[in-house]
Amino acid sequence: MLQRDLAALAGGTFDLAVVGAGMFGAAAALDAAQRGLKVALIERGDFGGATSAHSFKMIHGGIRYLQHADLYRVRQSAAARAAFLRVAPHLAKPLPIVVPTYGQGMKGKPVLRAGMAAYDLATFDRNRGIGDPSRRIPAGYALGRDEVLKRYPGLDRNGLTGAGVFADGQMYNPTRLVLAFVQSAAGEGAAVANHLCATGLDIKDGRVRAVRVQDRLTGDRFDVRAKAVLNAAGPYAQRLLLEGSGLACDPVTPFSRDAYFIVPRPLIGGDRALTIPAFTPDAEARVSRGGRHLFLVPWRGVTLVGVWHKVFPGHPDAYEITPRELARWLGEVNQGYAGLDLTPDDVAMGSAGLVPFGEGATPPEDDDGEQELKFAHRSRVVDHARTHGIEGLVTLIGVRYTTAPVEAPPVIDAMLKKLGRPRTPSRLATTPVHGGDLVDFEALVAEIEAKGLAQGAARALAHNHGSAYGGVLALAGGANAAALRRSLPGVTVTPAEILHVARNEMAETLADVVFRRTDLATAGTMTPAALAEAARLVAEAKGWSEDRRRREVAFVEGRLKTLALSGRAMLADALPEVLAPA
Questions:
Q1: Same domain for 188 and 217?
Q2: 393-397 and 221-231: which strand pairing?
Q3: Cβ atoms of residues 372 and 281 within 8 Å
């Protein structure tokens, strides 16, 4: 059970305070707690609610880095993907990806087949320690032209020779994956809190002493005292340093707004993702197969379409997708796969987050132009003892959600050294997170079905809660058992799950429940009846007044309209003005 114990945060002195509970902050906090440190983890919004929530749901294994002759990143990404499949098999699975081949040149089948063989060789140990066979990454293989056209008739036939198929990873729910790491950190003794904004750092005599925070639910301010601080606030990290403490990062890390959209139905059928041509070349490729790809990705009955990149120099609360951008993206997708004929009416919602890009990235000249951007090669780690003469303060700006399990441990190694603690081995990539203690996912689904849940609800519960599903069903007993286990209208979420997350998972607002703890709105398919019932249940669990319940619903409805890309859609999460009084 997650407890938002602000008294513990205000009254203690921690070995390490981690600012930011996206994937990197959550992974770092768990690793530190597993290695015996007294840890505080604070998040300005909800856990995993910003960039992590808006990821493309893919867990990249590094195959594209072969084009860049970067074996280090290939191995690192494959190891990180294996870590997720190993410790969270309920929330991560393999995703087959089909790459069409053309001619006999760099886009041809021989080149792609050779690349897949090289990748399989470079990642020979990619399945080590993964218990569930359904979570293991298979070797790549080729498809003939006729089979490809039968499955994907909208592809350009001119010069088509077939396709290569390789597997990467896919998340069922990126915010619940972050939450599983947070829950595990709390289980190891960490004090955690969401909606607690870091406003500055207390620095005295050349050492960081505390993080100044404000509770966004009440307005209260206090200090979280710590011997060391890890600033893992993602796009907010540099602003915390500059605006909160007058510390400038040099050079400034540029960020890209990575965006995609969701079509609420299958576009290509089956369980494989399909690549289609984009029109932005890969500026880094040593061995170029042409431009980058766009992906059509099946995910929970809908299709994810993207990704588009644009340098974003503004405030992390203010990024957006414009109607002009969406129209151009739809045209690009329709050109890449004949017969889709997508229009804005086909789009359920848009999604975007801010990720670091390499040096030399500049804002586009027009409002919505994509560019030849270079991805940042490594996550950025800044030891402020070296750059500013401040002991105990380190900034970590993660480059990709995928690499958190392998990039967090070296940072914790450094923090242990700073604290004068022995460097014990990391268990982050091998110890199951909350809900991840299982070896056969399908057997888990059958086990839950046998307890009276419908197949769809049982599968969703198995994904979101894994081996910890019993905490949900514990609330679905007694005279109301049947009603509590019956899914809400049009979704697979049960009343028992809503009550559980509201009471036991630090879901402090209706938006926390709807967008991050459950499947209610993560794919843009929630019905008004489901929202109304969810609001009633959360209000009951939280003891909200009728006025508070109405304001919470109004905020969620506005957020849904924003994500549906109505007008110039501001996508960054904001806290609803629905707080005290309850």
A1: yes
A2: parallel
A3: yes
| Rounded distance between C-alpha atoms, residue 302 and residue 267, angstroms | 8
Q: Between the CA of residue 291 and those of 51, 282, 288, what are the distances in Å? A: 25, 6, 8
Closest CA to 526 of 507, 543, 513: 513
- Residue 72 counted as domain residue: no
Closest CA to 552 of 568, 572, 570, 537: 537
The Cα-based distances of 312 to 208, 253, 351, 369, 400 in angstroms read: 30, 11, 15, 11, 17
Contact 350/260 with Cβ under 8 angstroms?
yes
The pLDDT value recorded for residue 581 is 44
395 is a domain residue: yes
pLDDT tens track for 256-304: 999 999 999 999 989 999 999 986 554 444 444 456 789 999 999 999 9
DSSP strands (E only) in 103-247: 141-144, 160-171, 191-193, 196-204, 207-215, 221-231
Hey, CA dihedral for 7, 12, 18, 19, is it positive or negative? positive
**Domain assignment of residue 407, given as a range:** 6-51+175-253+377-418
- Pair 414, 446 in one domain: no
What are 27's two structure tokens?
Answer: 């992974």
Are 19 and 143 in a shared domain?
Answer: no
Report field, pTM of the whole predicted structure over 0.70: yes
The reply to whether 207 and 302 lie within a common domain is no
**Is residue 381 located within the same domain as residue 351?**
no
